[in-house]
Amino acid sequence: MSVLANDRPDRFQRRTGITVADHETLARIPVFSGFSPDGLRSLLADAWVQSFPRNAALFFQGDPALRFYVIVDGWVKLFRTSEEGDESVIAVFGRGDSFAEAAIFDAGLYPVSAAVVDDSRLLVVPARPFLKQLCNNNEYALNIMASMSRQLHRLVSQVEQLTLKSSTERVAEFLVKLCPNGEGAAVIRLPLDKALIAGRLGMQPETLSRSLAKLRRFGVESKGAEVTIPDVSALRQVSNGARAHFPRAGC
């Protein structure tokens, strides 16, 4: 199934399940940034948004890489399983993250397994029509190469932050990235299994709990899976090391 770039937005939404809000989210992620609205609809002509329940398996290590994914809402973990059956979590991805795209370019096998951590909505992008679009349009291919380069730089930056930032600053930065707006108040939802978040941030679960407790002085409240942030811009400054400039909550 393929459509022209001028596919009407309402028809595109009915066919793919990609809403206007989803479209805006997708346009901001590295792998799709730089495309016009019509260009992005054309590129995703054969993709669709699908809901997955918690613990649903997406693919297994060694499966043919037939598609890649973008998280519209929810959480996904990538992991490997040893011969003894022990699971090792490689990465945890949240809203706006893409994964498994490198595998489809290699035309190979998935090097890891993937499962949904929490109820999620994912954009599913089949490999064959997506790659055909890139082959037929040099501009698309260049945009994707530039986007993947930006994503690589972002990953390198994340590795550097593991050594340069304190655990509290890393948690603050992680929370800020999950906020839909860059300022004001926000309420975000984390996976029920906090160990997954701790692993992503390079710390132990107890360190994550202590860091969240330290952020209470800035008004950040964590209750179960829900985190309430009264001032996103202030928390961003905390993530950049400006902790001394903010009063304790209630002052």
Description:
This protein has a 4-stranded antiparallel beta sheet with strand order 1-8-3-6. The protein has 251 residues and is an alpha+beta fold. It has helices at 9-16, 20-28, 37-43, 101-105, 127-136, 138-164, 167-178, 194-200, 205-214, 232-239; strands spanning 48-52, 57-59, 67-73, 76-81, 87-93, 98-99, 113-116, 120-126, 186-189, 221-223, 226-229.
Q: Which helices and strands, and how do they pair?
A:
Elements: H1 9-16, H2 20-28, H3 37-43, E1 48-52, E2 57-59, E3 67-73, E4 76-81, E5 87-93, E6 98-99, H4 101-105, E7 113-116, E8 120-126, H5 127-136, H6 138-164, H7 167-178, E9 186-189, H8 194-200, H9 205-214, E10 221-223, E11 226-229, H10 232-239
Antiparallel strand pairs: 1-8, 2-7, 3-6, 3-8, 4-5, 4-7, 9-11, 10-11
Q: What's the SSE pattern?
A: HHHEEEEEEHEEHHHEHHEEH
CATH topology term of the largest domain: Jelly Rolls
Number of strands: 11
Task: Just name the CATH architecture of the largest domain.
Answer: Sandwich
Mean pLDDT comes to 83
CATH level 4 superfamily of the largest domain: Jelly Rolls
Q: How many helical stretches? A: 10
Uncertain residue ranges: 1-5, 244-251
Q: Which structural category do the helix and sheet elements fall into?
A: alpha+beta
Key features?
alpha+beta; 4-stranded antiparallel sheet; 10 helices; disordered N terminus; Jelly Rolls; Arc Repressor Mutant, subunit A; disordered C terminus; 2 domains; single chain; 251 residues
